[in-house]
Amino acid sequence: MKLVQPTCALKAKGSQSLFSCLTPDQLEKVQQHTCQFYKKGQPIFQEESVPTGVFCISDGLVKVTKLGSNGKEQILRIAKPGDFVGYKSLIKGNRYRASAIAIEDSSICLIPKAIFMELLHENVAFYQQIVHLLCDEIDNAESKLTDIAYKPVRGRIAEALLLLDKAFEDKEQITLTREDLAGLVGTVKETAIRIISEFKHEKLIEINKRSIKIINPDGLVKISHLYD
Amino acid sequence: MKLVQPTCALKAKGSQSLFSCLTPDQLEKVQQHTCQFYKKGQPIFQEESVPTGVFCISDGLVKVTKLGSNGKEQILRIAKPGDFVGYKSLIKGNRYRASAIAIEDSSICLIPKAIFMELLHENVAFYQQIVHLLCDEIDNAESKLTDIAYKPVRGRIAEALLLLDKAFEDKEQITLTREDLAGLVGTVKETAIRIISEFKHEKLIEINKRSIKIINPDGLVKISHLYD
DNA sequence: CGATCACTTGATAATCCTCAATCCTTGTGG
DNA sequence: CCACAAGGATTGAGGATTATCAAGTGATCG
Predict the structure, then answer these.
(1) The CATH number fitting domain A3-139, selected from 2.60.120.10, 1.10.150.80, 1.10.260.40, 1.20.210.10
(2) Which nucleotide is at minimal CA–C1' distance from A72?
(3) How far is the C-alpha of B9 from the C-alpha of B19, rounded, in Å?
(4) How far is A87 from A68, CA to CA, in rounded Å?
(5) Which terminus of chain A is less hemmed in, N or C, by CB atoms within 10 Å?
(6) Which Gene3D superfamilies match (chains A, B) (predicted)?
(7) Region A111-115: what's the mean pLDDT?
(8) What is the third-level CATH fold of B151-224?
(9) What are the pLDDT digits (tens) for B41-82?
(10) pLDDT at A2
């Protein structure tokens, strides 16, 4: 287990960062804790386990997943550097309702429960930021819910690719397992592969090895809205 | 427009109620406002419109919906007496992301934005309750998301009936349009009807006129978990 | 350089949606 | 109180979408 200096606070950009509203004292308290290294594929926490703190992605990429029928994996969201994971269960005081798994080698900072709760109570602005994050998660989940219910897989994959493009912006291309992409839009690997292949033939995307590069975003937008 | 004395605070039971943590002063401020009557089918607010306050269901039943592809309607949740609707958009300060429509004749109390925000800032316990509601909504949406992604319609309808049974407990039977039931589980009217009909033949439910009564909950539980 | 993991493709089948016609229920106006 | 209109419920046939299963191929890593 490699230990790295925490850089979470720096990763989160400007006023977007949850940490931007902390006092120097509070910031220091958070930064005392060290990041831990997680290998690709390694779980950060598991559905139904008891929360120990909030995780802040310092580097890497993490999928937040929920187990569905047939043991299939629904990906709720993908957390990037600067993102937080696991705070909802801490606030509610119940077990995790989802798992978090590194999908790239990652370094992730743990803010222990006690410290997080302290911050929540001490710092109203911080609390409000968290509440806004919660609201965003609701919007996100409810939009996704509606999409999965009524939008065909083709439209959902087009949409997912556009969203992923932002998450992977610095890399210029999307490196996600076909299986994870499928989990993200609620379908199976094979269906995802077939549709990606269609997109390639339609010159909407390019594929290098395994990673996807969008070359015609407008085309994808059109497909993703095709059924509105 | 009939005006009725507000009874929201009473409808919400015991410590479950959001109002239970208000001071007498605050409670009075809330109760000054009168309920408004909404006929079955009448909208309370519409997706994309600007919030004016929080709605508290005093009597009746309200569906919270989101428009999906093909103009199909996804029902996010059904609000009962004592439930609140529309607070998320107020907190985030954006437009409604969903519509609310009365599915029974209802009387609904509007707590104006200014008063709600005042309560939020004055009363930490109240704020915390709201935050817990937000967390519950996330859990709810994410579970539903996972179900719709991977659980067959049959399982989802079984599950929905079990959940609705609680919402309709005092009535002893479920009175919901087949179309609304379909919207709740993310399918179309006809499919919902066929599955309900199966359940009837399998002696899991009974149907009087249009309303559904569960006679074998365990059977439905089994079906709803069939694909876990 | 063999083994493992990811990707791909095809054939087949299950699930679910669409369209269309009909029946039943409820409410309304005469 | 009845007839009729309107909306909800139902059923059938057909087709589109998507999942499953099986059998590979290509990439990556110790």
Answers:
(1) 2.60.120.10
(2) D19
(3) 6
(4) 22
(5) N
(6) Jelly Rolls, Winged helix-like DNA-binding domain superfamily/Winged helix DNA-binding domain
(7) 93
(8) Arc Repressor Mutant, subunit A (1.10.10)
(9) 999 999 999 999 999 999 899 999 999 988 899 999 999 999
(10) 44
